[in-house]
Design a protein that fits this description.
The protein is mostly helical. It has 7 helices and no strands. It starts with 36 loop residues before the first helix and ends with a helix.
Length: 135
């Protein structure tokens, strides 16, 4: 059957807690795809660097954490949205853009361009929410 995948977001205190937690235990899972391998490896690497040389593991993981937040915001939007709004979002982006959003590999510049293209449409708020997801 498998187990449910936690997609609630990153616990930023997990890496420096006692004992420290990484990967899914710390929320490092992309909510759209359920992928946890790459973010888990990134969290383990950041923890190892923290243990060896100090520094801020959360800062090192800022782009991963930002994409997890963005995807969480998108899923929250989808849960609240009417079916027509969901369809409008899907029609407004290419397959490549959808995949890059799901994988967390889209650059902020490309996301901003996507938001600008949609500025006059009903889906603009979705892309603005994705851009603001890092805060």
């Amino acid at each position: 059957e498998g187990a449910p995948i936690y997609v609630g977001g990153v616990d930023e205190t997990a890496l420096t807690s006692n004992p420290p937690r990484i990967g899914e235990a710390a929320g490092f899972v992309y909510p759209i795809s359920g992928e946890g391998i790459r973010p888990a490896i990134a969290s383990a690497w950041a923890l190892a660097e923290y243990l060896v040389s100090g520094g801020d593991p959360v800062k090192r993981l800022s782009s991963v954490i930002a994409w997890i937040r963005r995807q969480r915001k998108l899923l929250d939007y989808v849960k609240r949205a009417r079916p027509e709004a969901r369809a409008a979002v899907l029609r407004s982006i290419s397959v490549r853009d959808a995949v890059d959003i799901a994988l967390g590999t889209m650059s902020t510049a490309r996301l901003a361009a996507l938001a600008a293209r949609a500025a006059l449409s009903s889906v603009a708020s979705v892309f603005r929410a994705l851009l603001e997801g890092s805060g």
